[in-house]
Amino acid sequence: MLRTAPCWCGIAVAAACAASLAPCLAGSAAQAAPGYLAEILFRDDDGVLFLAQAVLPKAQKDDFSVAAIAFGADGKYIAPPDVGHMRREQVITASGAGGRDLPAAERTHLYGVCSERADVPVGQVEVRVSDMGRLGPLPQKPGEPTFVLFFTGSPSSAVFRFEILKGQAEPLRQDIEHWRKRTKAIAGELLARRAWVNEDERRLAAAAHVLRDPGLIGDLHDKLEAWVDRGEDWIRQTGFPHHLLDALVAVGPAQAARLMEQIAARPRQAHYLVWKAARFARRVGLAPTRDLLLRLLDEPTPMRQHDLLRRLREREPSVPEPVCGDGMLLEIARAFRLDPAEFGMAMVEQRLLDLADRHPLSAQDADRCQTCVRFKSGTWIMPSAEARKRGVEAMKVWVGRKSEGGSP
């Protein structure tokens, strides 16, 4: 059998060609995977507007954290919220505007971006708000940024902006001028896409919540008003517009209470307002929301019952079925830091402990009840129909008295 010997000169030529092509191939790979600048606008619980920044791809594929800055009306720097993470000492970066040495921006893990994970498709990016995430598109061409608008309904919202990097991105520093410039520019870009924003309820809710633009808030109101004017059949098919209403509760004017009263007049939708109306009243005051709250205090729609409440009603049949009016009373008490017990409410867990001699609890249930009572984190109910009547009347008196003098 004849064997052919390897041609070492041919291998050498191929290696030389490969070496000469390496820079070209590296350049092609760089063009195929460009760098991206990610910028995020979000607000904290006090409504402070933050600007966050990150460069993609990141060195660590599971790193979602971003640098973020904000400033108060007095011009003082505000550190970003970062629950569960310890602050690190900040290092001084290169000189900022006017030759000032500015500290690096601090980081947050509550809002973030990442494109390096194996489960993120090519051309996509994963954005996160707290422990919730979704995918969005990365830009395809320089100068054509993409946006991802995130609304969770808490409401915690964020506006994510992505653009292809043309060079090296400057690290984010505690620079108030840069914060002013970029927040204004990003808001302007998004408002120029108002029609696109209005195509989706969550987009509109997020944009209105973050930007606080009067036009977008007006769009929220108009869409909800159009929803109220629809018939019941259409409403059953489309569902309740939670995102729009949550955003209106967070940023809408006091006059929005009239629209909420129209929603409350619908027997099948009134119960959705119980948890939202109290937050709205806390923000805009009791005077404009008085009629809304009084109406919801009388809402008879039944509420869900968890297992401990069901067991209590089996042991104590005089305990009435919970209704949304009870929930409204409890939410007003929580919003204005009142004691529910002063309005006749009782804690399910305490009642079960009181009945334990006749109706023993398991060790696990007893520990659960004792913990809830100790930290006042249990389930509040009306222990009787008479207690409900007195409690609701007492809360109506409180709301009426406080509304005459404005927000407490």
Output the keywords.
408 residues, alpha+beta, 7-stranded antiparallel β-sheet, 3-stranded antiparallel β-sheet, globular
Helix content: 40-55%
Question: Which H/E pattern describes the elements?
Answer: HEEEEEEEEEEEEHHHHHHHHHHHEHHEH
The average pLDDT score comes to: 87
The parts where pLDDT drops under 50 for at least 5 residues are 1-32, 89-94
Largest beta-sheet characterization: 7 strands, antiparallel
Cα(first) to Cα(last) distance is 102 Å
Could you characterize what this model shows?
The model is unreliable at about 1-30 and about 90-95 (pLDDT under 50). Helix content is about 45%, strand content about 15%. It has 2 domains: about 35-85 and about 90-190, no CATH class; about 265-408, no CATH class. Strands 1, 2, 3, 4, 7, 11 and 12 form a 7-stranded antiparallel sheet that branches. The protein contains 15 helices and 14 strands. A hairpin with a 5-residue loop joins strand 5 (about 90-95) and strand 6. It has about 400 residues and is of the alpha+beta class. The chain has helices at about 10-30, 175-190, 195-200, 200-210, 215-230, 230-240, 240-250, 255-265, 275-285, 290-295, 305-315, 325-335, 350-355, 365-375, 385-405, and strands at about 35-45, 50-55, 65-70, 75-80, 90-95, 100-105, 105-110, 110-115, 125-130, 130-135, 145-150, 155-165, 345, 380. It is globular and about 75 Å long.
